[in-house]
């Protein structure tokens, strides 16, 4: 029996289609629209991001690696979004696939990235998406529901469009 196709509109320009339960899916992720029970996540600066900190705030979680040129451009756009949204209920979190904290700090400084980052990308990735692409952007609304899973580099307009998630749903 062939598993059913699931289609999710992940942005105005992207649609994600996959076979539910298809072979090759490394793990089960949160279905879109479902609330996420946010885990306590260690941040690169030594602090942590837990359920209390994510509540009532929309989160743009970007999975990336230091060696990805597409990620560099994408993250600069996300940095601009983070700066634009200061003081508003939307935050950016970088989930870095690389595990060398010193290299990640150096990269963030060189690129001017000030949004929080975690090295616990594998843990978050298992919760949010089976997709194995970088960059991968996942959006949680203010109720911690997964709303968008966007594979690949996004245009500046699309990144800035994520600001809409700061509004109550």
Describe this structure in words.
- This protein is an alpha/beta fold and 169 residues long.
- It has one domain (28-166): 3-Layer(aba) Sandwich (Glutaredoxin), CATH 3.40.30.10.
- It contains five helices and nine strands; from the N terminus they run ββββαβαβαβαββα.
- The chain has helices spanning 51-54, 69-84, 101-111, 121-128, 156-161; strands at residues 5-9, 15-19, 41-42, 48-49, 58-64, 90-96, 117-118, 136-140, 146-151.
- Strands 7-6-5-8-9 form a five-stranded mixed sheet, with helices on both faces.
- The protein starts with a strand and ends in an 8-residue tail after the last helix.
- Mean pLDDT is 86; it is low at 1-27.
Brief descriptors of the model:
Glutaredoxin, alpha/beta, 169 residues, two-stranded antiparallel ribbon, AhpC/TSA, 5-stranded mixed beta sheet, oxidoreductase activity, 27% helix, antioxidant activity
Mean pLDDT: 86
Silhouette: globular
Can you list the strand order of the major beta sheet?
7-6-5-8-9
Helical amount: 25-40%
* CATH architecture group name: 3-Layer(aba) Sandwich
Overall structural class, as computed from helix and strand content, comes to: alpha/beta
Q: Sheet with the most strands?
A: 5 strands, mixed
The CATH homologous superfamily corresponds to: Glutaredoxin
Counting DSSP H or I runs of 4 or more residues, the number of helices is 5
Q: Class in CATH?
A: Alpha Beta
Please report which band the strand proportion falls in: under 5%, 5-15%, 15-25%, 25-35%, 35-45% or over 45%: 15-25%
Please provide the count of β strands: 9
Radius of gyration: 15 Å
**N- to C-terminal separation?**
38 Å
CATH domain topology: Glutaredoxin
The low-confidence parts are: 1-27
| Series of H and E elements | EEEEHEHEHEHEEH
What is the count of distinct domains? 1
Protein name: Thioredoxin domain-containing protein
Organism: Vitreoscilla filiformis
Keywords: Signal
InterPro entries: AhpC/TSA, Thioredoxin-like_sf, Thioredoxin_domain
């Amino acid at each position: 029996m062939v598993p059913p196709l699931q289609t999710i509109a992940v942005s105005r320009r992207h649609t994600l289609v996959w076979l539910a339960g298809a072979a090759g899916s490394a793990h089960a992720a949160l279905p879109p629209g479902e609330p996420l029970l946010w885990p306590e996540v260690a941040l690169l600066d030594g602090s942590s991001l837990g359920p209390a900190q994510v509540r009532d705030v929309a989160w743009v979680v970007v999975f990336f690696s230091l060696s990805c040129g597409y990620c560099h451009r994408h993250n600069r756009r996300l940095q601009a979004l983070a700066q634009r949204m200061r003081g508003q209920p939307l935050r950016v979190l970088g989930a870095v696939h690389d595990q060398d904290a010193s290299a990640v700090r150096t990269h963030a400084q060189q690129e001017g990235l000030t949004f929080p980052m975690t090295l616990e990308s594998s843990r978050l990735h298992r919760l949010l998406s089976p997709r194995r692409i970088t960059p991968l952007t996942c959006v949680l609304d203010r109720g911690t529901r997964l709303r968008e899973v966007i594979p690949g580099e996004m245009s500046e307009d699309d990144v800035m469009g994520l600001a809409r998630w700061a509004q109550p749903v």
